[in-house]
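User: Here's a chain of 255 residues. Predict its fold as tokens.
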Amino acid sequence: MVQALSIRLADGRYINPTDWTSAPYYTTVEVAVGSLTSLQGYSYGVGGQVPGSVGPRQANKRDTNYRGAGGTLMENEEILLFALQIECYQVAADESLQTGGYFDTATQEPWVPDLPEVSGTNLMRLQRSTLVRMKIANTKTYSEQHLAWYPAGQGVHRSVGATRSQWSAYDNNVLMGYNGGVSIGDQRQFATPHHVNGGEAFEVTLEFPYGSIIEPASQPSGSTIPASLLNFGTDDDARIRVVISAIGPRRRPVA
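Assistant: Prediction complete.
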């Protein structure tokens, strides 16, 4: 069997295919209730602060595999970026709050699912109010679209039937939301791949043009669901955890 050990590119550089992998870079930000500022993904490495998190908390390897201090691709790495895939999860400040004691009919939507599912209405509010901006080398915006334009294309396929949530003491059916389907065919790719060289700045930022996750100005008569906010019931420190994956071949560190 023939194996390519070295390939000469048009610009004269030589690369070794075994130095490249399809495993994506990923990063995490967290979206809260209330006024919001931009949340910059790929702005930190392990041990850095997760943007938007309570505390903020210190990032671990589940939050990111981005090396270095963040914001800039390491000098000995490189990526050809074909797509962004964005997943959403709901987290609580205290996961014990997912018991019936969390459910408050005065504020919480009755169809909210259990952790880590996101309610369909919260997910659509997030999609409607969030802009995703990708910049490379601090020169210009390479992609700027609403969040739903970047479907996850990964995850778990759910068939829930008449599922009822623990949060509602099993009294109510659930309405869940996902940012796209689970098939790789649901992935939306860029028309041409974007090239990020080692040492170049790279960022994917969630922006909120309205200043928060908005709701329509009018609410049903007698509704106690707060306008202009995500709805997490009584848990002010709950978040929607957003995981962004940069899809495409990347050169692994070789030195």
